Amino acid sequence: MTIDATLARLEEAIRLRRGPLCLAALATVADDRPQVRNVIIRDFSAAGLTLTFFCRSDDAKHREILANPQVELVVYAREPDCQIRLAGHACPVTDTTLLDGYWMQISQAARRDYVADSTSPANGRETLFAAIEIRIERIKILSFENDRWRLQERSL
């Protein structure tokens, strides 16, 4: 599978919002130590080579990205065996129209995760809601083909 075909597969999975490619391990750096946690990819553009995930603005990963915007994500699918590594530059989305559109993608029940306290309303976009966009600078695809791992890499 080529890099372009793999990115198209990732884009389709994100658009449909299902499958293992929607969940990524995000690596950031805090105090010169790597930090890894899972995030849900909410938007991906193979043409623009950008992806977006949501978090709270008071979350550690948000602070770590502000301090050091270089990140890497890894997604994995078992069928076919494929690992996608995307490295790049992350920054908070500041366009209020985009943020409002992203906010509308979140279910009413999940909005409580972005509320400062239990007395705050969860119907309008809250100040703790953040979207992070990553501009992809390097792609690595590891796929298991013909009984061995094959690496493809592209730097942009």
What tags apply to this protein structure?
Pnp Oxidase, Chain A, 46% strand, alpha+beta, 3 helices, 7 strands
Detail the topology: elements first, then pairings.
Layout (H helix, E strand, L loop, with lengths): L2 H14 L6 E8 L2 E13 L4 E7 L3 H8 L2 E8 L4 E11 L3 H10 L23 E17 L2 E8 L1
Antiparallel strand pairs: 1-2, 1-4, 2-3, 3-6, 4-5, 5-6, 6-7
Describe the structure concisely for a colleague.
With 156 residues, the chain is an alpha+beta fold.
Describe the overall structure:
- With 156 residues, the protein is α+β, with helices and mostly antiparallel strands.
- The protein has one domain: Electron Transport, Fmn-binding Protein, Chain A (Pnp Oxidase, Chain A).
- Helix content is 21%, strand content 46%.
- It has a 6-stranded antiparallel β-barrel with strand order 1-2-3-6-5-4.
- A hairpin with a 4-residue loop joins strand 2 and strand 3.
- The longest helix has 14 residues.
- The chain is globular and about 55 Å long.
- The two termini are 19 Å apart.
- The relative contact order is 0.19.
